[in-house]
Write a structure and sequence with these properties.
7 strands; 5-stranded mixed sheet; Ubiquitin-like (UB roll); Beta-grasp_dom_sf; alpha+beta
Length: about 120
């Protein structure tokens, strides 16, 4: 599978991503942090980025977090896109409340007693 360069316009750095690997996975493997990470399955919307340039394939993403009009503007979830060419991306800042809510949910799921 070919490898592509992903340039992050927000941070000014770049990393390599294989065509069969999600952009989020490639970011994590090289220790890049651009977006919060949630479910890694396209449902939570935390890893939203904007693809400024380049071709990619999309996996399933929640339309609540990426409606068709946002997708048309290049807004996608990093966990569900796979490059088909070199990409230029921008990180989409998350509202502070969304990050706090994610941390609260994560804490609740780890502190619940088993039944």
């Amino acid at each position: 599978m070919p490898a592509y360069q992903v340039f992050n316009r927000t941070t000014g750095d770049s990393f390599t991503c294989n065509g069969d690997q999600s952009v989020l996975k490639a970011m994590e493997l090289v220790g890049k942090k651009c977006v919060p990470v949630g479910c890694r399955g396209g449902g939570c919307g935390f890893c939203k980025i904007r693809v400024v340039e380049g071709d990619f394939e999309c996996g399933k993403m929640s339309k609540a977090h990426v409606p068709p009009e946002a997708l048309a503007q290049g807004e996608v979830l990093a966990c569900r896109i796979y490059p088909q060419a070199d990409l230029t991306i921008e990180c989409v800042p998350q509202p502070v409340d969304a990050i706090v809510e994610q941390a609260t949910r994560a804490k609740q799921t780890t502190t619940r007693p088993m039944r």
